[in-house]
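Internal ticket #5521
Category: modeling
Description: The requester needs a full-assembly model to guide mutagenesis choices. All entity lines are attached below as received. Residue total reported by intake: 753.
Assigned to: D.W.
Attached entities:
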Amino acid sequence: MMKLITTILALAASLLVAVTPAISSEAPAAAAKTEVKAEKPVFVKPKTTSTADHAKFKELQQGFASGPEVTKACLKCHNEAATQVMHTKHWSWEYLNPQTNQKLGKKHVINNFCTAVESNQAFCTACHVGYGWKDNKFDFAKQDNVDCLVCHDTTGSYRKLPGLAGHPPYKDTEYPPKSGEIVPATDLKFVAQNVGKTSRATCGACHFYGGGGDAVKHGDLDSSLKQPSKYLDVHMAKDGLNFTCSECHKTSSHEVPGSRYAVTANDTKKHIRGKADGNPATCQSCHTTAPHKTNARLNGHSNKIACQTCHIPEFARAQPTKMSWDWSTAGKRDADGKHLKIKDSTGHHDAYDSRKGDFTYESNVIPQYVWFNGKVNYTLRDTKLDPTKVIKINSFEGSADDGKSKIWPIKRFVGKQPYDVGTNQLVIFQAYGTPDNKDAYWVNLDWEKALERGAKESGIPYSGKHAFVETEMSWPITHMVAPKGDALTCAQCHQPQTGVGRLDKVEGIYMPGRRANYWLDLIGWSIAGLTLLGMLAHGAGRIYVARKSAAKTH
Amino acid sequence: MTNKIYVFKLFERFWHWSQAGLIITMLITGFEVHGSYTLMGFADAVEVHTVAAWALVGLWCFAIFWHFTTGEWKQYIPTLQKVDAMIKYYAVGIFTHAPHPFKTTQLKKHNPLQRLAYLWVLLMIGPGIWITGWAYLFYDQWTAWGWDTLLTLEWVAFFHVAFAFMMLVFLIAHVYLTTAGHTPTAHIKAMITGWEETD
């Protein structure tokens, strides 16, 4: 009897043990769902793994009048930091592409957004990791000109404003001008004492706002990545892995790996993370080249298809991105002769701006898909162009059979921008200027003056006659990776002849379910149909004869 | 007078009907993968098609073993004897109540046209669809095996589908001709019970 009772008790206990985790595991999940914290306006010093509290350093316990003064203090201890930064694209805005020998970088490329840095430095260099680059006389060798804070700020209070040539405001400043909004003077001592590792916010301060505003340029990088949901970014999700940018862009000696000038389009190494010879920012560097554990067929697909193609089903999933920019319509004024701004149907974005022309924005954009082997060719300032054609600002090289390409998702950004009719080259114009600068396009809406000024400052001759040419630019889609449940399904590409399959325009491969052989189908179905008809006719004949003979015998 | 002879043994009937089911499944799913229509969705169609293919491979292993151990393979030795009589029967005789020119026996259970047709299925359509199907299935390994320089998926798929059309044509004709025995249901009954009624 005793034995029976103990057995029952033991059974009950084991049942309890088995049930308990099921109950307790549910509770935190429910709590996590309801816990939506608003960003706190008050700075709370974040927990850090650092062994040094910068607030305690004597060098930082002083008032700073300018950014370079802070840098001087940083370099007293971090005496190699400036040298390291100076070797990077973040500093030089220059990149020599070893594949094409083209000199690229923001300093040289003309894109189809704001087009060119030259003659607009004071505006553009709000995103330079330096202080004072306002014209071509900037001293790239002066260490104090390096801006440490823009990447290492943890307070969120350090903000470089366009127009200040890379400086933050040292006094209360109205920005945007005439907006009535005041950006307070930067508390450099506070920022300097709270430096730390880079974050989504510091990288994003520039990279989320490329092209002149939030989400404008990339489509897969915008401010929603500061606190993203899992659906938006499975790696950066605030309630998930919570990766920073540098988790993948694993930086060494201030050199940030991962580049869209020279893309690692086809990483064939199995697991290179942590090794110096690879790009740690590729998917493969963590996930290997065979990441699908339950479906080998998907690993097979990854021979030809970039991970991003299936795992980033759409871009601009949190907010709309700019898809076109037509400079040729810029310059209109209202009845009072003032600059115009017209909102688009959503009311959130400009559809027209006198200073810039027409825009379109789109959300949840299905990417275009191209073969890409990592080599990118640019149309540069000295490239002769055929203005009757759409000019490819950059073009991604690749094909189905070069053995190096994969099918990649891209954002294709189209527009119209000025070119020199005399030389058939893209031109530089001065867009930004202080209100007293009558040449700047954004001040006076006069193309000729802006182009003359751009030519003067860049040293590139301008014939005096311009027109507008259609351009397009390709951007690799690689950020904002969705959870695996939101990846593309088979049928989104393997669509039976509807013409709306994702890869419908990708040539050079045979895809089951896409564009079957017309003659094979015609002949095959015809023979099958005729056979069926023949059989039916034969059967009908037999039935007819049988009925007739049956009728006779009756 | 009606005679009954035992023509199809249990394994043979099992083989026939499971093979029929698998082939029909593969025709339905295969043409969906090919892009002819949407029924269960591409992903499921691929999955079902693949499972059915491997099941048929297993079935054939048994069937080949059976045919050789029982000597039944001899049933498929082609002959042109009476082929003309068979064609004449299907074209004319069947309408005029002429007697069936072929007498089924256990040693000769297929009429000469059946022999030719089944041999064609077993030696031509079958292997054709299998070889192309395997190449198709192992496409991911082509590069590793060095096949990518010899084959293109487009042509492998082309022939796979071409053979599938032949199988479809065979299936249509075969299903109809099952009604063209000594009586309309004689063949079908035989394949179910094993016993065929003869005159």
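Resolution: model delivered.
Comment from assignee: The CA atoms of residues 41 and 106 of chain B lie 45 Å apart.
Ticket closed.
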